[in-house]
Each structure stands twice: as structure tokens, then as C-alpha cells.
Amino acid sequence: MPISITNYRDLFADIRRRPGMWLIRADFASVVAFVEGCDQANARSLLTGFQPWLVTRADGLDNHVWWSIVAHLTEPIGPKPFRDLDPDLDARVVETLFDLLDEFLELRDEYDGLNRVFAAHEQWRRSREQNGCAATGAPACPAVAWPSPASRGKTDGPTLHDYQ
Questions:
Q1: 77 Cβ neighbours under 8 A, 6+ residues apart
Q2: Which of 3, 14, 6, 4 is nearest to 98 (CA)?
Q3: What is the pLDDT of residues 72-104, one digit of tens each?
């Protein structure tokens, strides 16, 4: 029986509850390595859309890997060498990662969820280009609605149908 996104949500929830059963260490670097391994085991399809989804949330960092954006969303000040995070920040980044993974995988599991992720990212990219923010990094760029699962009751970004 193939593993579905719902199963990965359950797996990540189990790891969050009892990291010692799954990981040698429960630090951010180890959790990232485990999640990356899950993505690799799924032909890099488990996290498809995760980085663009995070970019719309962070309103930037389009050239960063997903784990860097997660750290930035937890504490947006300065670069963070992941192996040298202080224990408090490390624990907060791990919690942020599990929260974001759960929300993203829930969204991915919805009808048209992944399309909404890519549509919002495209809208974010276009708004930055149209307003000159891409070149300048100006903070006055219009915000883009961040796609969210229906169960979380947030407003959602555009769908692909909005671009057709």
C-alpha cells in the first residue's frame, strides 16, 4: 500500500510527539535531514510546492531553500547556521517546521491545493516585478494571500483559473 500525504502528516505528528523513537537527535538539522529523506524516498514529490508556499508566507527569500525560510519565519533576524542554533531557538524552529509541514500537507491533500500554492507564488512573483520590488527589494510591495487549507478558515490566494 503506497504512503499518502495523510500518512506523512501522521508520521510527522508522531515524530513531533516522540522524536527519540525516530531520530538520533531531535534538533532542527536532524529533523530537516529526516524530512528531506522522506522527500527523496518519494522521488522529490512530497515537498513539491513547499518552498514556493513558504516564499509567499515570508514575502521573500525566493532564492532560499525551504529550511532556511522556516528558520527565517521563526526568527527573521540574521543568518542561522543550523548546527549552531541555541537550544531554545532550535526547539522553536523545529515546532515551526512541524506546524508548517502539517498545514502545507493538509493543503496539498485538498482538491486544487497544489495549484493554489503555485498560483499564489506566481501572483507574488508578478506583483514584485510589476511594482519594481524584485530589483530593489522594496518593502512596499503588495502582499499576496497565502494559500491555506479550508479547515483553517483563512482566506486563500488565487487559483490557476484566475490566470486563464
A1: none
A2: 14
A3: 999 877 666 777 788 999 999 999 999 999 999
With left for phi above 0 and alpha for psi between -120 and 50, is residue 43 left, alpha or beta?
left
Count of domains for the chain = 1
Provide the domain limits for residue 75.
Answer: 5-163
C-alpha cell belonging to residue 25: 537527535
Q: Which residues of the chain have pLDDT under 70?
A: 1-6, 78-80, 134-140, 142, 153-164
Concatenate the DSSP letters of all residues of the chain into one string: -PPPHHHHHHHHHHHHH-GGGT-S--SHHHHHHHHHHHHHHTTT-TTTTHHHHHHHHHT--TTS-HHHHHHHHH--SS---GGG--HHHHHHHHHHHHHHHHHHHHHHHSTTHHHHHHHHHHHHHHHHHHTTHHHH--TTPPP-PPP--GGGT------GGGG-
Count Cβ atoms below 10 Å from residue 76 Cβ, excluding itself: 10
Distance CA 2, CA 4 (A): 6
- Contact yes or no for 164/125 (Cβ under 8 A): no
**CA gap 15, 157 in Å, rounded:** 30
